[in-house]
Amino acid sequence: MKINRKSPTAAQKKNRPQVWQIILIAFFIFYMFLPILSTYIFSIATRWDRTIFPEGFTFEFYKEATDASYFTTSLRNSLILSLSTILVSLIIIIPTVYWVNVRLPKAKSILDILMILPFGIPTVVLALALVQVYNGTPIGRSPVLLIGAVFIYSMPFMYRPISNALHSIDALTLTEAGQSLGASTLQVMLKVIIPNIYPGIISGSLLVFATVFAEFTLTKLILGARFKTFPLLLVEYTRINGNIAAAFSVISFTIAWLASLLILWIGKKGQGSSTQAPHAH
Fold it and tell me: 153 with 125: CB under 8 angstroms?
């Protein structure tokens, strides 16, 4: 029995990546990963300044990094700052974006412009302005002011994914359907809207976490050494030992990566438990 195999059509051949495209993508990936790989190698290199390759390898710098003073405290402060900012962002941005999309659609363009402003305000200017305004108040020079500052700085990273997720669903129809069944606006948002925009919430949370965890300028200018975070400890050791600073960079990157995986896992669990949420068709 003879089997006739279909030859690839012209469209299939056209969609196949060409050799130059594969080379270009491979070069881009290599270019993006080269600094990370170099940092990893430098953190375990005994000496790497006289030859193109390291002269030896050791994990002693990681031991010195973890034994450093304020290592645990700075790591804890960075995690608290990042998670607190995510929580504040979710509490403020989700209801605001939902209300604008459902009740005040004409104000959406104004909200889009406001969410672009943090990109145009240097962190130095933002920090000095907040310190001057809130100096002498109970929250002046406190972690509360720092959380507010990093929230303003990271607003666009949470706003855009949530806004895009809301645009992908018919929020107005879902709201009217829920209210016609006797649900309040808060119930509709918690039980209908939020389960439908889980991907946007997770994407925004990941971006905010990565941004805040590595934030240096705002923390340095608002609180200084009174609230030492991981980036402050890293910069401090760049003046002492580059290898230890590289070890801190690797630890920071690894923790951020593991925290991102944890956020994704929590998001998938939450999305799985909300599969019964109604959708608008």
Answer: no
Q: Based on the structure, what is the number of domains in the chain? A: 1
Cα–Cα dist 244/236, whole Å? 10
At 267 the pLDDT is: 66
Q: Is the pLDDT of residue 193 over 60?
A: yes
Mean pLDDT throughout 249-275?
Answer: 74
Residues 238 and 245: their CA atoms lie apart, in Å, by 5
Does residue 229 contact residue 219 with C-beta atoms inside 8 Å?
Answer: yes
What is the distance between the alpha carbons of residues 191 and 205, in angstroms, rounded to a whole number? 20
* Helix residue spans in the chain (DSSP H): 10-15, 19-43, 60-66, 71-102, 108-120, 123-134, 143-167, 171-180, 185-188, 194-196, 198-213, 217-222, 230-238, 242-273
Whether residue 58 lies inside any domain: the answer is no
Domain residues for the domain of 212 are 73-273
3-state DSSP assignment of residue 47: coil
Q: CA torsion, points 213, 229, 87, 255, in degrees to nearest 10?
A: 40
Indicate the pTM of the whole model.
Answer: 0.80
